[in-house]
Amino acid sequence: MDCVILNRNYPPGAGITGNSANELAAYLVAAGFNVQVVTVDGEYQGGGAVPVGVSGKVHTLSHLYNGKNKFIRLFSSLVEGWKMARKAVALGVGPIICMTDPPLLNFWVARAARRRAIPWIYWSMDLYPEAFVSSKLVKRSNPIYRYLKRSLVQAPPTGLIALGPNQARFINSEYTTAVPTVLLPCGISQSPAVVSAPEWAAGDDRIILGYAGNLGEAHASDFLRAVIAKIDPSRHRFILSVYGSKAPQIIEFASGREGVVITDSVARDHLQFIDVHIATLLPEWDHVCIPSKAVSAVCEGATIFMCCSEETDNWTLLEDAAWRIPVDGDIDLSVSRFMDGLNREEVDAKRLQTRALSQQLLETKAQAFAQIERMLALSQLEE
Hints:
40% of the residues lie in helices and 17% in strands. It contains twelve helices and 13 strands. 46% of the residues are buried.
């Protein structure tokens, strides 16, 4: 049995989506699949690589651009996606599992798969072209946006791997017939039982809060700013490891504040040493992206303080391990009340709930991999 997985990043390079693809590839190889992987040799901004073995036969295409100019980056992404889809078709095997990096990779794969009658499975990380609307680059009435949406609806996938139930419903609502769906939240992992604590976690019994990850267009930076402003050095320590378009202003705001530690990165197995992770998503990004770091933090046994809508899949999936305030309320007041009432007993009680949820997530991942294996087998029978 054969399949192709497409994603811009893949081990040994960095990137959570690439690590996720590699984990699935390893499972499928063990199940007897011949797994081909098409990727690009570009760099990923979001942190260091996790040292893992590389699974599948990897075909690496050359990147076009790794700079920060939005328009050049978008153009190069479109070309890279086209090249990746063309390479996948040229391999002559299927089904194709299409992730969503670079942007609009799903568009190119949908077109090619329809033309060549190749089954394809949509692994919906960030949604495109919807992200262009969420980031206010275009309006839904834009002719190009409407063309992209129409083209995707006309070439539906044979299967869907969605990050959560709300995202799955959102995507399926676009098609005339529901697509067979597997739920697989991104970021499910578990570190070894014994892990050495980082330097910032050693010492007293202060509650450690932290933000580790991207702070971009999809995130409410005023929420993170409000939390940092309420840090009481006698009760709290805050770990800040941030990148993205809104990161420089937050780093400047946090620099020099007592009780705040700014670090380049937080290793996955160190997420457990942060008692309360800060997570945020603006409502216009609901379903379009579902931050994986919150899922990883819960799997490592930590808790989450969220500023998001109730429709966000992170809240739907992680509610037992989390506290939430709405994005459209008085954020400063809500944060102040939360921080004033936060104590060690409450955190420890929430961590107990987190352990059970972590096991549920690991079971969800195992079940999802088995479902994907069956989905691929059925797709090949239907070719």
